[in-house]
Amino acid sequence: MTTHAVTLQPSNATQVVHTGALLSDVLRAAGVDGALPCGGQGRCGRCAVRVESGSVRRRSALRLSAEDLAAGYALACQTVVEGDAVIVVPKQETVERQLTTDRAASAFTLPFAYNPATDQTIQVVPLTLPQPTLTDSIDDVARLQRGLAAVGVAPVKIPLSVLRALGSQLREAEWQVAAIVETDNWNHHTPRLLGLIPQSAISNQQSALLYGVAIDIGTTTVSVRLIDLEHGVMIDGASEYNGQIARGEDVISRIISAGRGENGAGLEEMRSLVLGTINTLLSRLLQRQHLKAEDVVKAVVVGNPTMIHLFLGVTPASIRLAPFVPVVNHPQPITAAEAGLAIHPQAGVDCLPGVGAYVGADITAGALAVGLQSTDALTLFIDVGTNGEIVLGNREWLVSCACSAGPAFEGAGVVDGMRATRGAIEEVWINSATHEPTLRVIGDVAPRGICGSGLIALLAELFITGEMDRGGNLKLDLGSPRVRVGAHGPEYVVAWASETSTGRDIVLTKVDVDNLMRAKAAIYAGFTVLAQSVGLELEAVERFLIGGSFGQYINIEKAVQIGLLPDLPWERFEFLGNTAVKGAALALLSRSARTEVADIASRMTYLELSADNTFYDAFTNALFLPHTDLGCFPSVARLINGG
Amino acid sequence: MTTHAVTLQPSNATQVVHTGALLSDVLRAAGVDGALPCGGQGRCGRCAVRVESGSVRRRSALRLSAEDLAAGYALACQTVVEGDAVIVVPKQETVERQLTTDRAASAFTLPFAYNPATDQTIQVVPLTLPQPTLTDSIDDVARLQRGLAAVGVAPVKIPLSVLRALGSQLREAEWQVAAIVETDNWNHHTPRLLGLIPQSAISNQQSALLYGVAIDIGTTTVSVRLIDLEHGVMIDGASEYNGQIARGEDVISRIISAGRGENGAGLEEMRSLVLGTINTLLSRLLQRQHLKAEDVVKAVVVGNPTMIHLFLGVTPASIRLAPFVPVVNHPQPITAAEAGLAIHPQAGVDCLPGVGAYVGADITAGALAVGLQSTDALTLFIDVGTNGEIVLGNREWLVSCACSAGPAFEGAGVVDGMRATRGAIEEVWINSATHEPTLRVIGDVAPRGICGSGLIALLAELFITGEMDRGGNLKLDLGSPRVRVGAHGPEYVVAWASETSTGRDIVLTKVDVDNLMRAKAAIYAGFTVLAQSVGLELEAVERFLIGGSFGQYINIEKAVQIGLLPDLPWERFEFLGNTAVKGAALALLSRSARTEVADIASRMTYLELSADNTFYDAFTNALFLPHTDLGCFPSVARLINGG
Most exposed of B135, B469, B546, B640 (fewest Cβ within 10 Å)? Predict the structure, then answer.
């Protein structure tokens, strides 16, 4: 039998092995800590290495995309040596991040070169005004307007609160000021003066002068991004559960809560709860960036129609009742003072346009962020939140619907669920032989709970490695202490109390599983019905774009395994993170993006699922792992049949 | 000696008298209660009768105008019988009101035929909207805008507070609504939705649907007029002392008060004080007319620049310091909610344009009300308030100034001063022989104090009948108990405690006299300097228009006698009451009037008196009764010289 020299990088150790040796055995022999959480079945992809040179044979490349293969990646547990070879063993973290099936939520980059002078509606206009004299004694406002006119700015509207400070600001700055002017807005074309700052403040500035915020009000999660309006970059972000959760988990229960009490008390409570969340996030961002509330001069807000109604204090009652009509799809711009946002009181607050009762500005903004309006490819875009909102189409046509998934994928409504923050289990692999899990925890700390992406992975692994049947029932007869009956019925122990930061076991209960099953079934049913409505098969979808705030990463393979996503080639999927807040940021930074999102909203057809009987049938069919009809999921069928 | 039959009407009694009999003696003989408060000197005009037919000779007609004479009036104490005659003795009240020298403040009448459809910026647009269905499921706002567009109304701006009520209002009215739309405003041309009312409310209405308020914020007196926007009529009015009086009597002391305290506390206090006064008046009017705050959908506000700054919460500090520059002469429209006015929160609040530091919208509105912008005659218009603001000019040119008179003519800063309401002494005659006064009291009740017109009359009578010298010193040696030394020095007792409603003597003290002297001197000095500034003599003034809230009537003859007004033929004078609030009402009712007032403001030249040394000289010269130079007042000279 021929022997071969296998050199491992970066250690430069060489192992001499026989032809046909499994690369994972070579690594173990060399003392390289090769984690095989899936038990060497080629599923988890954690043993991926890069073949720098030499001859190897890949027996399976289940976890690897065409791009990965082109880059030379191979799964050590599925690859045999056939000649001398140089193998690069990446750091574990690098592996996890690089594999394209992990499809990281791309960082925020503008799809255009930002030029504040033309893209931005907020302008800083430096003015050196002549001091008043007995012979030039026009009033301060006239003097300011005269100065603005001299540099081509049309007469500005001066809000009362700005007028109140004007006289002393002009004098304190000795008439050397910079006017912060909102040159235009959606449907308000008179320029508006937001305030004056001394010119000295501009020359002394250490960082950008003006900021904006993009706010995504999710039913479960509220996300805020702080954006530098001078350079057009997102400089910080924060997310938190929506304070309204205490009043119900989904939009329907929120609408009911808003209707409680006398004289709109319920509505006002809901408004102040979500405002509380937003303002807490704003204050956290401002503190972290050493900014004042007045530095934030613009806000763009997105959310589903119910969230937008509650944010504005407009009753959402009609959204819930046939014929499902919101009071307003596209609210007119208001000020931060009117909205109650703790930023510059005169900052314009634009709620982007929505489409129908359950398809709101989060979707139109998401569609903008993913570029639906300019793609030729048949694209399906889903925003997985408490509602799964789905858009199908391309630059020619767009059709949308919303299906009630519940908050499970955001880590709410699940015993040990949590948001995708430090301490959240975001990825899980289970060894099919031992039933023991391997976890990836955000921040590499002791786990505290499981976020959305972790829940998807966990459900998939339990099903694929056999701890759970296709109906979602845990198998109590495996002889593993991990599968047991707890206070809430059958459960799987993801982490023992001794390993967690809470000192309690982290578990997934049967009730949690049922919530997750309903959530994924609702979303899949949405895909089905939406495709049917335009007479297309899901296979025809060329690009499958996934947005959502349920984690920074989503394992698309596992999402297919549980039947959340259809069984399409992985290359068609792309996970884009919080597309809603990205779209809001784009609208904040670009005049044309704001026009585009309005165009998207006006062109998008809304399909009301509650007016469609086929939805319930599709939902029921999807209440299995991955689906009643296994034929729809050939890759999953192959896997569970050991193919 | 020939005898004649004099028949008196309406009693029809006949007296037979000799040629040359004094008519007042004939009346007394016939038992007609002919009051002669001036002692039969032909000064007070209270014994005026109308000569229906027959032959009489008027020895003097001092109190009678050409119009009075043409109408047959004669003063009984100055008229002798020369043949048979029929004499009509009018009721005392009729005499007082009819004599044109009393020149009643004319009631409010529009100088044009009011057509709300074209003159008014507030329109009621009835709309019958189709109910939403699954196939016509556009949002409520889009449905409303679609309905408005169908009747030619451009897309309306919907304020947040209106949006909040929209959904339930539409449904409660079963989509049969009327939209209250502000179609335009000074510089804001997007129509604005103020609210919705059910169509049933229109058909059921008993009175007008919508109202406006004209508000004049005087330094001393605040006046509000309630106006029916449907018929263009003023339906009620109310006035009250400005609550800021407690913080100083003139604008300078108000500016100082506004500058006190930390973080604008003084300014905010001044704002809330005047708002308190205005809102009290509004509430009084609404209650009296059985209206709700929401029925008042428009407000026009006038006042001097300091008052407008304080009303808006804008610091007036720069008005007081050279070069005397206000922060704003013409504030942009705001809403009642922003202003803090207790009317419809979305009502537009227009502060009319002012001209300079001390010539404000009260004057431009007054100029509008008296028609300065369209007269060919050289006209002098004065608004007598705490400041005396004066405009000289015609349709070609306008020059203005302001002189600090103090609040004396508004009844403030005078021991027994009061506003011109029930119980105020508004006219005084003194019998030169007995030094006893005769009083006319508003409401014909026991007197409570003296209003502005009463103070002018009192000062004039004391001077003309000899209780006071030209320097304003009371003569203590007359032997009359009316002239005495009181707690505050020399004083004249106008009414004894037993006659008053307060149970205390009503007096005019030397301090009061000095205040009145300074007030009238400041105003006369203003006339002088303003006329000089354009190289004209006061005699050239063809029309002399007097506005002010110091009483419903002003005795112009007596105002001349004290040197408040120049000694011109009485026909040239006209007293017009509160011209500021009338101008505000015009602007409220007429689009073109609003354009005109802006035009007046832009054309008016402002003369800053504190930048002019001649003012102080003119003021000093005017600190006598009627003036240092008696030659300027020939009619008064004749009177005191018994001419």
Answer: B135
